[in-house]
């Protein structure tokens, strides 16, 4: 029964973690960003480099891992050994759950450096779902949700 609970907890954690991964794509907008005016600037891409966008650290992974580890650890030994096993399992599970959450939600992105038409040099990081090359003419859209680069 406890193994089923641990498996269910891990499956629930994976589902929740998948839902926590908000998009940092230049093409994705939150509901709050719709119907909002954005400032548009234009320029030319100077350079593009691949970067890693770190994953979320919401605490959901830590909590789910601690529960699963505590349940699993409680099966170790008997009497006081079960208590020690549950505590150690919860700590180890929490650490592992936190690392799993961050790793599962980590994304590859691009840092796009743009020379604006006014001569200013600026750089934006976003998910790498659109291909940019040096020399591309682009638009920078800035508003409440930050700035994004589009063609």
From TrEMBL:
One annotated Gene Ontology cellular component of this protein: cell outer membrane
Membrane topology: Lipid-anchor
Presence of keyword Signal: yes
Signal peptide span: 1-21
Origin superkingdom: Bacteria
The keyword Lipoprotein appears for this protein: yes
Compartments reported by the entry: Cell outer membrane
Domain Glycine zipper 2TM: 60-101
Protein's name in the database: Glycine zipper 2TM domain-containing protein
Organism this protein belongs to: Azospira restricta
């Amino acid at each position: 029964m406890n193994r089923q609970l641990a498996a269910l907890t891990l499956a629930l954690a994976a589902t929740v973690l998948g839902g926590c991964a908000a998009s940092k794509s230049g093409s994705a907008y939150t509901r709050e960003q719709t119907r909002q005016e954005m400032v548009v600037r234009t320029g030319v891409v100077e350079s593009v480099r691949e970067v890693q966008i770190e994953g979320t650290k919401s605490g959901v992974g830590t909590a789910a891992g601690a529960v699963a580890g505590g349940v699993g650890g409680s099966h170790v030994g008997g009497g006081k050994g079960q208590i020690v096993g549950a505590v150690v399992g919860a700590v180890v599970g929490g650490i592992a759950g936190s690392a799993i959450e961050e790793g599962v939600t980590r994304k590859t992105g691009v840092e796009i450096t743009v020379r604006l038409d006014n001569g200013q040099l600026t750089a934006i990081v976003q998910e790498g779902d659109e291909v940019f090359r040096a020399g591309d003419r682009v638009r920078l859209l800035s508003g409440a949700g930050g700035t994004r680069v589009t063609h």
